[in-house]
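Please, structure for the following, as tokens.
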Amino acid sequence: MPAPVPAPAVESFATRAMPVVEHNPPSAPVPVVDTNGASAFGSALGPVPRWMRLILWLVAVPVSFLVVFLFAIAVGVFTNSQLTDLFLATGNSRYWPVVRLLPFVALLCAALVHVGVYAIARVRGRG
């Protein structure tokens, strides 16, 4: 009969130390801001007051609806009969032609406000 094989020594997890790994991720360039507020990556951006942002939203929402619906009518996605049905027909299905255009209205509105805030901040930062 062969000799029994000795069991391997079991190390305790408590006694084994984890190796220390130093992690130095590559650092991203950090914009340097001088005393005038101008950054190294471009011109300074000035603050945009809330009342200007409110005006931007009040202008962007109707403009977005107008642009999206005129474009949808020009392309043929939204017809005059669907617009008439919206007001004269009954049932919830009459809203579907409008509902499917709302994401595009929201996207255009957000883009207009974002560009407007950035433009105002650039203009206010120059002065």
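The radius of gyration is 31 Å. The mean pLDDT is 81.
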